[in-house]
Amino acid sequence: MPGSAHRRLCRGSVFCAFLLLVGCGSVGEPLPPLLNIPGKVADLHVSQTADEAELRWTWPLLTTEGSTLRDLEKFEVFALDIPSDAPAPPLDAFEQLAKPVVIVEGTALPEAGAGAPVLAEADLTDRLGKRTAFAVRGVSSRGKTGPWSDFVIREVLRPAPTPAAPEAVSVAAGVELTWPASEGAARYVVERRLADEDDFQPLATSEEPHYTDASAPMDTAIAYRVRAEVGDGDATVDSNPSPQTSVLREDRFPPPVPTGLRAVAADNAVELIWSAVDAPDLAGYEVERNGQPATHELLEAPAFHDESPVPGAVNQYRVRSVDAKGNKSALSEPVSVNALP
Predict the structure, then answer these.
(1) The CA-based dihedral angle spanning residues 237, 240, 241, 243, taken in that order and rounded to the nearest 10 degrees
(2) pLDDT in tens, 279-317
């Protein structure tokens, strides 16, 4: 073999041996497969309405190993009734004694997946008047259960009876609502839905079984319903809503009657002034002289110069206010003046 070829072969053999040594050095122990156990739910919230619990939490982003959570089949919510003066139960006791109250799986799971809010409802009929600890955990498709969330402990209150439908009457001050009192209710939550709204919205809280909605808009169909509330502070529970009542809020209400009318005779005329009426939809004023219209158009200002009094006779004047809908007030107290000839 020629010398140059022999040298190239040797150099190639040495390089190959080096690569083998380096490659052999990189081989280590095989990594264990990921368990893909769902991570802990960090923000379980439990609220009560009537005899149902509303539960909210966020779908964990990670597994217990810190990798992205991609395998989750369902969430399990369990509950355990505990004595009124007892601390949170130990995990092992909760694991053995707690019962499932709701399973969120299949189409009930949010399509958004990890990081999405999860909502569920649970029946509390058998827990009314008891103190209950709730917790939630995720379960993978392989049956791997994640750790329990921190406990949420609630006093499950007995709700007040559902109120009857309120009576609604449109008056000048707004819509007056009245309803029979519910036994045990501490207060009432009034809810309203306007014609262009999809659902009822909380309007006000009243300690008595009546309320006047002064903000009710005119010329609008409005629906009302009421919930009875028990408890105080953060520990309050609303009843189911009453049947709804609807009312058409129409402007059929006249503006206030003018006051302070005064008259002063002048040469072939009478000067009238009165106190301005406070009404947001006031359109103007009408004046009557001796029981007949003295004006043909509405007066914008609370004053009138009458150039047509009956000369040399006593003339009696009265004033009324008119709103934008054409509603007219009653006539004011009369004032009399002897017109100069």
Answers:
(1) -160
(2) 988 999 999 999 999 999 999 999 999 999 999 899 999
